């Protein structure tokens, strides 16, 4: 007797929506998401779509009215509860287009709870395009099965970040002049936590001293090789997740 196929199939498309989801919601999909479902995935009436709103978990939607440019989805059941989110922020200097997009994607894939763009003296970008960064994180969440999207904070200058820093949150900063080996420091420190990554040219001496003066700040080293800022961000987040037991 043949096995019953899994439902919904593994190939079912996933879609992030801003509408709060619950059983019985009827959702109209328009614009780029509708183009993806209709033209790329060839969605027909009765086809399933996995939906998530970042808050309530993953839901099953069934296509009903399918038109040329939009379609309706009936939300029928909860497939998965919202994931547990490690309480880690990534605070990072904005990088050139492409590099910061990659960093935002990886922050989402690796499980970061919050991404904070931080302008420093050597930053080459003063104000990143937050709509584009959020779009990259949403796409990453859709593709890698996350049921939450990291919060994207407003861009802040480094002095303001340090001035308003919450006392209960450890701040690990990648110190190119040397620091405690990252994994060792992260295993020993309390949580919640954040990781601060500087720009391509690194922090200047005055900035470094200001960070070190912050209670709870810990300078960390990321090995013997010089890393690009986006690589350093992914490496540091990965180490923290391993130390926290998320991996």
Structure characterization notes:
With 247 residues, the chain is of the alpha/beta class. The protein has two domains: 14-80, Beta Barrel (Ribosomal Protein L25, Chain P); 88-244, SPOUT methyltransferase, trefoil knot domain (Alpha/beta knot, 3-Layer(aba) Sandwich), CATH 3.40.1280. It has helices at 31-40, 99-110, 130-144, 158-163, 182-188, 205-212, 229-244; strands at residues 14-16, 26-29, 48-52, 58-66, 71-80, 88-92, 114-119, 151-152, 156-157, 170-174, 180-181, 193-197, 217-221. α2 (99-110) packs across α3 (130-144) and α2 packs parallel to α7 (229-244). The protein starts with 13 loop residues before the first strand and ends with a helix. The model has no long low-confidence stretch (mean pLDDT 93).
Low-confidence stretches: none
Strand fraction band? 25-35%
Annotated CATH topology of the largest domain:
Alpha/beta knot
According to CATH, the homologous superfamily of the largest domain is: SPOUT methyltransferase, trefoil knot domain
Domains, number: 2
Give a quick account of the main beta sheet: strands, pairing sense, barrel closure.
8 strands, parallel
């Amino acid at each position: 007797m043949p096995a019953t196929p899994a439902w919904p199939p593994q190939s079912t498309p996933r879609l992030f929506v801003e509408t709060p989801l619950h059983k019985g919601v009827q959702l109209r999909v328009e614009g780029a998401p509708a183009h993806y479902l209709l033209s790329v995935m060839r969605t027909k009436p009765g086809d399933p779509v996995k939906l998530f709103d970042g808050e309530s978990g993953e839901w099953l939607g069934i296509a009903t009215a399918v038109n040329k440019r939009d379609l309706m989805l009936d939300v029928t059941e909860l497939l998965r509860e919202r994931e547990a989110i490690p309480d880690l922020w990534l605070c990072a200097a904005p990088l050139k287009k492409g590099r910061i997009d990659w960093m935002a994607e990886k922050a989402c894939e690796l499980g970061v709870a919050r991404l904070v763009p931080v302008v420093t003296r050597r930053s080459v970008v003063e104000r990143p395009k937050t709509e584009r960064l959020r779009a990259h994180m949403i796409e990453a969440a859709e593709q890698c099965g996350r049921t939450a999207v990291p919060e994207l904070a407003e861009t802040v200058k480094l002095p303001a970040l340090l001035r308003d820093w919450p006392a209960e949150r450890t701040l690990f900063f990648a110190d190119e002049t040397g620091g405690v080996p990252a994994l060792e420091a992260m295993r020993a420190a309390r949580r919640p936590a954040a990781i601060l990554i500087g720009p391509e040219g690194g922090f200047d001496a005055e900035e470094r001293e200001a960070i070190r003066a912050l209670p709870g700040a810990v300078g960390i080293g990321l090995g013997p090789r010089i890393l690009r800022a986006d690589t350093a961000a992914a490496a540091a987040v990965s180490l923290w997740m391993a130390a926290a037991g998320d991996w």
